[in-house]
Design brief:
The model has no long low-confidence stretch (mean pLDDT 94). By secondary structure, the protein is mostly helical. The two termini are 17 Å apart. Helix 2 (61-69) packs across helix 3 and helix 3 packs across helix 4 (84-95). The chain has helices at residues 5-17, 61-69, 71-82, 84-95, and strands spanning 36-40, 56-60. The protein has one domain.
Length: 98
């Protein structure tokens, strides 16, 4: 999927929100580092939540790889991070057709 200008802006906002630090392992990165990713909780293919800041976390390369290898553990981590209510509301928005 091609990355748009809006994707780039959203990615920058997510990394700035996290202070250029991985939300999972707390490793700090230099500004504009390629090793820090704006990772979608529910796939970016879902247009309803693609640029929703609640649907994005800041992950280093290693933690992003972990999230893809362990989707159940990743979603459990996200649910704990967001709280049950916020996670469920995000999931409902992700299921909405846009």
């Amino acid at each position: 999927m091609k990355r748009s200008a809006d994707d780039a802006k959203t990615s920058e906002k997510v990394r700035e929100r996290s202070g250029w630090t991985c939300d999972r392992c707390h490793r700090r990165h230099e500004k504009n580092s390629m090793g820090l990713h704006a990772a979608h909780i529910f796939t970016r293919a879902i247009k309803a939540t693609r640029h929703d800041m609640d649907n994005l976390v800041c992950l280093c390369f290693g933690c992003h790889a972990w999230a893809h290898r362990n989707p159940l553990d990743f979603h459990a981590w996200v649910k704990e991070r967001l709280g049950e209510e916020k996670y469920e509301a995000l999931m409902i928005r992700a299921k909405r057709i846009k």
